[in-house]
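Re-run with default settings, no changes from the original entry. Doing this only to confirm the output is reproducible before filing.
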Amino acid sequence: MSNDFPSIPEQARNLSKTALDIAKSFAKTRRLLVSDDLIDLRNSICESCDRYEFESSRCKECGCFMVNKVRFNGATCPLNHW
């Protein structure tokens, strides 16, 4: 794994926080996924960011696989870009 990504324990914390945020959002809104248009918008924002790793489609800030994260209502960009 590249040193550009957070440590494994930090990635685990980030994943846990994202999962909790998604669960809280689902409990409140009863919506798990966002629209295809919002997925496309989030993807384009990620792809224009210097912290995005194209080869693996991962964020170097949080370590998440963005192809999955962008789909969930309640998930957020760690840099507040979306």
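The chain has three helices and two strands. The two ends are 26 Å apart (CA to CA).
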